[in-house]
Amino acid sequence: ADSDHIQHETYGFVVVSNRLPVDHTLDENGELKWEHSPGGLVTALEPVMRANDGAWVGWAGQPDLEVEPFENEGINIVPVPLSAEEVQRYYEGFSNDTLWPLYHDVISAPTYHRVWWEAYVKVNRRFAERAASVSEQGAVVWVQDYQLQLVPKMLRELRPDLTIGFFNHIPFPPLGIFSQLPWRESVLEGLLGADVIGFQRADDASNFSRSVRHLLGYATTRPYIDVPVDDDTASVSPVPVPSHERRGRRVRRVLAKQFPISIDSRGYEELARDPAIQARAREIREGLGNPKTVILGVDRLDYTKGIRHRMKAFGELLADGRLSVEDATLVQVASPSRERVEAYMDLRDEIELTVGRINGDYATMSHTAISYHHHGYPREEMVALYLAADIMLVTALRDGMNLVAKEYVAVRHDNDGVLILSEFAGAADELRSALLVNPHDIASLKNTIMRAIEMPRRDRVTRMRALRRRVLDNDVAKWSASFLRALSEVRPGHRIAAPG
Ligand code: G6P
């Protein structure tokens, strides 16, 4: 009840994402406990947060949890509550059973429900209101990902003084697919409330611009989009635009382009140099019966990742006799994800059936074919796995970026190891020295796996060196710095401090 009277603290830099960078858990005594969950985004933004006294607005991951803002390891946390029904309609429904499959090339059929859309609008408004209430005059607000596409416009209407950025972590689909969405115009308008809209790949940015041109009729001159505005809004943000592009209307110029995300590359590399983690990597290989080749897959258990395609290829190589279980083991980590969404339950059943069949047919008493793990692991264990793996297999059918590919490369300070990478992952735009594959082409996927197994060390090193240069030069700190630079150029005067 007191919360109505509390004057909120305000901040000059505010990040808004569906999930907070902290996990909410219960301790031994059943008391609420917050655990820092150091994802890539947190690592990148932490220094910026500290330099600017920033705040993070998001959901704590549990239904019906009302908590006041608090501080966690130097980050100001502003929780947004969701009811159980909102979790079902906004998060599991509209975000992960409508937008997620639609934006990933309809690999699974998207479901369109009006009540889900209504919940999405309502929850986006709550995030926008919360962000507005903690932003100081002229603050920079950075909204993250597909769960919150309406927030930029809502926020601009509430607070025209703010500079607003949006970054889409997943693909933006081609017009022919995006057009299915019954609320397509509202989503585009929602995003265009931002000053800068960031995408993973150049193709995502051009898919977006094309949708804006065709569905809203706004003029686009890559990388800009001219959004018509009422005179009173325009006067708040007088961005000069060449008059021939105005065609008699006042416009607000929005920048839409690619800012490929990355990882804390040095952080991963440092862990890989830790002798304890290297010992763990040897232990993992021994535990597998020391096969000649360890092939690794690491994914959230998601139908976009092509896990079945990779198992099909590996199973056929065993069936054809081109490989035996003494030659090669496939280790598949599939971390549990969105377990109440039906498409994810079905996928889990299919994958576990496949693993059981392949192991039943080919495993021996001393060697397994597929070592399957339905778990998430701490970063240290992941680094040990990457070190233990001769071949990293990334076969996504569609993926915004795929950070697993970059993590594997960052860890391989020995310059060894082969990355097989789907051309449908955003990372393929940068990681050209990987063995690129079309995961739908099973024959070629099988040949590529054999090529990786047989590749001479000299060639492995040449490729890995080139990959490492890319990943070490372009880390997540550089990503956030370049996005925030673009954002501060939109409205000179609204600068946010660089860390350090
Ligand atoms: C993808 C999305 C993120 C999301 C993550 C985990 O990477 O781009 O926005 O947080 O998956 O999914 P979850 O539904 O558990 O948040």
TrEMBL record:
SUPFAM superfamilies: UDP-Glycosyltransferase/glycogen phosphorylase. GO terms for molecular function: alpha,alpha-trehalose-phosphate synthase (UDP-forming) activity; trehalose-phosphatase activity. GO terms for biological process: trehalose biosynthetic process. This is Trehalose 6-phosphate synthase. CDD domains: GT20_TPS. Belongs to the glycosyltransferase 20 family. One of its GO terms (cellular component) is cytosol. InterPro entries: Glyco_trans_20 (IPR001830). It comes from the Bacteria.
